[in-house]
Design a protein that fits this description.
The chain is an alpha/beta fold. The protein is 25% helix and 38% strand. The chain has three helices and eight strands; from the N terminus they run βαβββαβαβββ. A four-stranded mixed sheet has the order 1-4-3-2, with helices on one face. Strands 5-8-7-6 form a four-stranded mixed sheet, covered by helices on one side. A hairpin with a 7-residue loop joins strand 3 and strand 4. The longest helix has 13 residues. The chain is globular and about 45 Å long.
């Protein structure tokens, strides 16, 4: 039996800014751009890996969420503690340099962690924490 990760979901607070980060900075391909009323859902993923995608969705749009709950969710996103994703690269330093040059919100430069991983951290335009591990 094989189990794969098909989609991961992260909120966005600005679809165009999210697209600029995931497509233009990270180099992911845009797979779907779906609009409904004044909302947009973007599906992006790494080139050559069509089975794995990130769905960037408008936050707190479920009709069962109260106005107070929506405000709490938006506050957590703004603080950068709502969504997290870990990516991996075969050239962490080059990717970090590209992200830094493009103006990404840097949280941590490439670092050899005590727990055996070399990684860095950035935030996407919504504030989601994106950690990037060095492969191999």
């Amino acid at each position: 039996m094989n189990i794969t990760i098909r989609n991961a979901f992260l909120p966005h607070t600005d679809a165009d800014a999210a697209l600029g980060f995931y497509r233009d900075m990270l180099g992911f391909e845009l797979r779907q751009d779906v609009g409904y009323k004044n909302l947009r859902w973007l599906t992006v993923g790494p080139v050559g890996q069509p089975g794995t995608s990130i769905v960037l969705h408008p936050p707190a749009v479920d009709p069962g969420i109260t106005a107070e709950e929506k405000e709490t969710i938006l506050d957590l996103i703004a603080k950068g503690v709502y969504g997290t994703l870990t990516l991996a690269s075969d050239d962490l330093d080059a990717l970090f340099e590209r992200l830094e040059a493009a103006g990404a919100d840097i949280v941590q430069e490439p670092t050899d962690q005590d727990y055996g991983v070399r990684d860095c951290a950035v935030r996407d335009p919504a504030g989601n924490l994106i950690r990037i591990n060095q492969l191999g």
